[in-house]
Amino acid sequence: MPTFGRDDDLQGAEFVRADLTGARFERTRLTGARVVASDLTGLVVRGSDVLNVEIDSPWLAEGDFFRVNGVDVIPLIEAELDRRFPGRKLRRAADPEGLAAAWSALESTWAATLDRASRMPAGTVNASVDGEWSLAETLRHLVMATDTWLGKAVLRAARPYHPLALANAGAEEDGLDMSVFTTGTPSYEEVLTARADRTTMVREFIARVSPGILAEERTNPWAPEHPETVLSCLHTILEEEWEHHRYAVRDLDALESAGDSP
């Protein structure tokens, strides 16, 4: 394992898609360091400068713990996110009625956020904050999530993907045929139309699903060796929706605070 000592300057270092599994920092200054899309499983930090730290991980709650000064903060974070985003706690619903309520709450939340964006300066929906997806790109990615986990995994559609869907970087390496997607930049109106079509598809599927179908087994579209159920596929869609809504609100807040017209 590489070792860095006090003579090594990591100030402002950037780690992108790095495997830092089991990494350990002791009496270390990482001022301004940036870690993007990297694996920090098993990270240990002792006696180090961690002032003004920002951590954003959609998988935080999947771990057994996330301790800060001996306190597991996962329950605190989850409770606060549920408070900030009413309806979020319904995302683990396990029956048709609960799923319908969960999806209804999510659609209402997104409607309010899109209305907010429509009242912000022109160009806001296409503005990127800190290199992240714009609101329009986020909506396109959620089309992708629906097509992957409902269209492909649950419904087993032969051609599940909308041409405006936006995949994560590296999806081609995972075997995704990128030729089915548009290479241009669609208008925001086109994005909203595609998004509305997919939210309707989820709503209508949930309206007719039965407990028996929820328990049926499906193939994980990214990891076929790990079987899923119809219910777990719907849970993945709900997780994607809430996490990306959180990102969207975070970035709209940043744009609003900056007071700059994109």
TrEMBL record:
InterPro entries found in the cross-reference section: 5peptide_repeat (IPR001646), DinB-like (IPR024775), DinB/YfiT-like (IPR034660)
Pfam families associated with the record: DinB_2, Pentapeptide
Domain DinB-like residues, every copy: 105-247
UniProt protein name: DinB family protein
Organism: Ornithinimicrobium ciconiae
Lineage: Bacteria, Bacillati, Actinomycetota, Actinomycetes, Micrococcales
